[in-house]
Amino acid sequence: MAPSLSPLRSHHVAVIGAGAAGLVAARELRREGHSVVVFERQKQVGGTWIYTDHVEPDPLSVDPTRPVVHSSVYATLRTNLPRECMGYIDFPFVARSGGDQRRFPSHGEVLAYLQEFAKEFKIEEVIRFETAVERVAPATEGGSGKWRVESTETEKRVRRDEVYDAVVVCNGHYIEPRLAEIPGISSWPGKEMHSHNYRTPEPFKDQVVVLIGNSASAVDISRDIAGHAKEVHVAGRSNPADTYIKQPGYINLWMHSMIERVNKDGSVVFQNGQTILVDVIMHCTGYKYHFPFLETNGSVTVDDNRVGPLYKHVFPPELAPWLSFIGIPWQVVPFPLFELQSKWIAGVLSGRIMLPSKDDMMEDIKSLYATLEAQGIQKRYTHRMGIAQFEYNDWVATQCGCPGTEEWRKEMYLTTGVRKRTTPETYRDEWEDHHLISQASQDFSLYTH
Ligand code: FAD
């Protein structure tokens, strides 16, 4: 006689956010038999990929009472990953007729892809648009595991207070800016802003602009602005102190070491000894994790950008599996990682996949923290993955009983990373990894018809 399988449990799950993470979470939860409500405060799916020319009134985005503009995408933004590599595993990001056919397409093409995904899997029928989650807290003090979710439907001003079995947090982490600390900044007379509020280069015409950061946005925005500004200077904390390099191909773009201080007369002094009169300082210094709606009585905290404790960056042991997070890791290929994390959460909630005991999960987290400390890695890099993402993905995939990252995807990510660093001007339009594109297309034929 065949062994009897225990029936899978179906739960009522709230997903917060209908960006790339929330959409695939909703799909995987429903596939597993759960009932799902997705809360999305914007009018449409796509999260950060919904370009808007609106920016926040506070250019540094530090005022906690400011109206939040979710997207950080600027007008000319093209993806920094090739589309084959970037898409979900079983819903390839292939060129559409009438769309942007480029391999590194514009933000509008990514949005169209996410809209297609939502349509294909009928996700919109479970999304409550223009509905902001304001509070998520344990439903009872005794700890039944259930969650109270308070939300407001903005247009109709309808407030709801509901109870869910589980909550999956997919609210994105590119809205709450981090800023560089600059000695003398309080009396510096120029304008400061964060890249979150950058859209187009025209307002910088004839200005002298300093961008702070070594990230993809500093690289791209500095080049975007250089066509209009008088001078563009990029200050990077990780650059050696004597860095002062004119960028080849530009007459007005320089790389510097970090800013040493700024002065009342409007000047900026770099560690390399250069002093320049500057109109605008733009912080391209990244973002902080921020969960303003979440009340966990201290079970989950954000400390120096470490969200914790989280088992494998997803489950807080104390509240698992009833609270989970998708998309915490960074320096990754996000969509496939979201997809695997979603499968894992869906399977754990149904009882198909087992989590270790609370104590064992805590031990695992402590061991990660100890390893980071031993390697001299600061807390704020806890969720940075880079090359380690593939081992992580494979581990999650093994839990789910599905294949891990394809070899071609790994190689494409690594090759693109090298080209991005060595040829930032051309890597989106010139490449040599044609063999990897063919391997990807072969895999895609399983899913496209
Ligand atoms: P988001 O897209 O931010 O979605 C979160 C959603 O949650 C939003 O729709 C928001 O409205 C909603 N939300 C938040 N709070 C609430 C609340 N309280 N109530 C209700 N709804 C709420 N990735 C790539 O793969 N390739 C790239 O080239 C690339 N370039 C990028 C460039 C920039 C400038 C940025 C900022 C990111 C880039 N990324 C890129 C990473 C990108 O963030 C991810 O691809 C992905 O879109 C993140 O999806 P998400 O669902 O986690 O978050």
From TrEMBL:
Quote the EC number.
Answer: 1.-.-.-
Alphabetized Pfam families for the sequence: FMO-like
Q: Does the keyword NADP apply?
A: yes
* InterPro entries in UniProt: FAD/NAD-bd_sf, Flavin_mOase, Flavin_mOase-like, FMO-like
| UniProt-recorded Gene Ontology molecular function terms | flavin adenine dinucleotide binding; monooxygenase activity; N,N-dimethylaniline monooxygenase activity; NADP binding
Needed cofactors, names only, are: FAD
Q: What class of enzyme is it?
A: oxidoreductase
Task: Please provide the record's keywords in A-Z order.
Answer: FAD, Flavoprotein, Monooxygenase, NADP, Oxidoreductase
- Entry similarity comment: Belongs to the FMO family.
Would you tell me the protein name for this molecule?
Flavin-containing monooxygenase
